[in-house]
Amino acid sequence: MTRAATSRTPTRALSPLDSFLLVASVWLVSRVAIAAVVWTQAQTSHLSVGDVLARWDVEHFLGIARQGYANPDDVAFFPGLPALLAAADRLGLPMLGTGVVLAVGASALAAWALARLGGPIAACLWLIAPTAVFTAVPYTEALFCAAAFWAWWFARENRWGAAAACAAIACTFRVSGLFLAGALAVLAVTQIVGGKGEVWWRGLARRWAWLLVPLAVLGAYELYLHGLTGSWRAWVDAQQNGWTRGFSNPLQSLRHTLEVARPSYWPGRPEVAWVFRAEIVSMALGLVTTAWSLVKRRWAEAAFVGVQVVAFGTSWWYMSVNRAVLGWFPLFVLAAGLVTWRPERPRPRVAWRVLVGVALVADLALMVVWTWLFATGRWAS
Questions:
Q1: Cα distances (angstroms) measured from residue 45 to each of 36, 55, 56, 114
Q2: Gap between the Cα atoms of 221 and 242, Å rounded
Q3: CA–CA distance, 32 with 79 (Å, rounded to integer)
Q4: Are 290 and 227 in contact (CB under 8 A)?
Q5: Is 205 helix (H, G, I), strand (E, B) or coil?
Q6: Checking phi first, is residue 158 left (phi over 0); if not, alpha (psi -120 to 50) or beta?
Q7: At what angle do helices 212-229 and 200-210 cross, to 10 degrees?
Q8: Treating both helix axes as pointing N-terminal to C-terminal, what angle do 200-210 and 176-194 enclose, rounded to 10 degrees?
Q9: What pLDDT is recorded for position 377?
Q10: 60-95: per-residue pLDDT in tens?
Q11: Domain count, the chain
Q12: Any domain includes 13
């Protein structure tokens, strides 16, 4: 036997039961960890847990659920989550508690889908992502990811009716549903090119016809906003007026972000500068994921992430990219491959394991810190 052959350690694949137990355990522990930080902050600040949770976008969602789009800038938020909260209120259920239950439950569904798309390690990495707090509080990240990840899995399994239904649900939560529908259209093309036994134009027409369903949801919201405001630019104007997300060329966008990433720009609020620095890192991760997908000829995945990188990179500054990363499932598939990579030689293998261990500890620390940022009302992207 060669030295390389003797130094190779076979990797044992996890059984379905082991995979389920691993993902379920990480889901439970990560949700408990986030809840512990929130509870601790409530105790130390002498606030209720509800007061700690009702931060930032949560206030907008609760406001829309109670009084509709009374604030013109609120039309930037899609109606899916506020509609669910309003329905809970009509049933006599607490809206804030319902939002938490929806997020926690949806995070389990998203992890389940991601485990099918990229394996249990990818799902675990998603559950402990630095910004995982947004999948455990009344935000739309968990709900969107659950619908989007299952849409992708159904489409990959050539079950386009179910994929369209899930994509339509995703479109009620975030504008990212538009990027999802476009990427699914690319996935349909790759299935036709690589498939056999189907007339290409019929197969493509069938798949694309299903994608009219999520597009109809987006179109319905646009028509609603036009009827409400009289403008076809209501959503774009709300983004620009409320969050300074007007169009900018990529160099200006990077320059603006670098400017606000300086601590001196935020006297007394140094954490804001660090969050904007993280936005730059998140953009870099998006570029790497897009390039990796292209190298692997995963054209649809490259389209899904790449178009979002372009959208964020042509905004006035990089904002909320840290949260958008949660929807980039190819990133977690790539990360899982790196975590499970095993060099053939013993010394590089040990060194790699140490590096991966350090990275995971840092990731968990960031998750706790990000949860603390949110729980204390500091800027958390």
A1: 14, 14, 18, 36
A2: 19
A3: 29
A4: no
A5: helix
A6: left
A7: 40
A8: 160
A9: 94
A10: 999 999 999 999 999 999 999 999 999 999 999 999
A11: 1
A12: no
> What are residue 197's phi and psi, to 5 degrees?
80, 20
315: helix, strand or coil: strand
On the CB side of 213, CA atoms within 13 Å amount to 18
Q: DSSP letter for 232, please.
A: T
Task: Give pLDDT, residue 194.
Answer: 66
- Asked if residue 6 is part of any domain, the answer here is no
d(CA 265, CA 282): 21
pTM above 0.90, yes or no: yes
DSSP track, 25-68: HHHHHHHHHHHHHHHHHHHHHT--HHHHHS-THHHHHHHHHHH-
Q: How far apart are CA 107 and CA 102, in angstroms?
A: 8
CA distance 209 to 163: 12
List beta partners, residue 315. 247
The H or E element spanning position 118 is: helix 95-118
**Which among 359, 322, 323, 310 has a CA at the least distance from the CA of 339?**
359
Which residues lie across from 247 on neighbouring strands? 315
Please tell me the predicted confidence (pLDDT) of residue 245: 85
328 lies in a domain?
A: yes
Asked whether residue 4 is assigned to any structural domain, the reply reads: no
SS3 133: helix
CA dist 375 and 358 (Å) reads 26
Domain that holds residue 274: 18-375
**What is the rounded distance in angstroms from the CA atom of residue 148 to the CA atom of residue 170?**
6
**Residue 157: HSE in the Cβ half-sphere, 13 Å Cα cutoff:** 14
State the Cα–Cα distance between residues 34 and 29, nearest whole angstrom: 9
How many CB atoms are closer than 10 A to CB 178?
17
Residues of the chain with pLDDT under 70: 1-12, 194-197
Residues 309/290, Cβ–Cβ less than 8 Å: yes
One-letter amino acid identity for 124? Answer: C
How many degrees, rounded to 5, is the angle at CA 134 between CA 132 and CA 140?
A: 130
Cβ(240)–Cβ(314) below 8 Å: no
Q: Measured between alpha carbons, how far is residue 355 from residues 257, 344, 348 in Å?
A: 30, 16, 10
The pLDDT, as a whole number, for residue 246 is: 84
What values do phi and psi take at 247, rounded to 5? Answer: -70, 140
Three-class SS of residue 173? coil
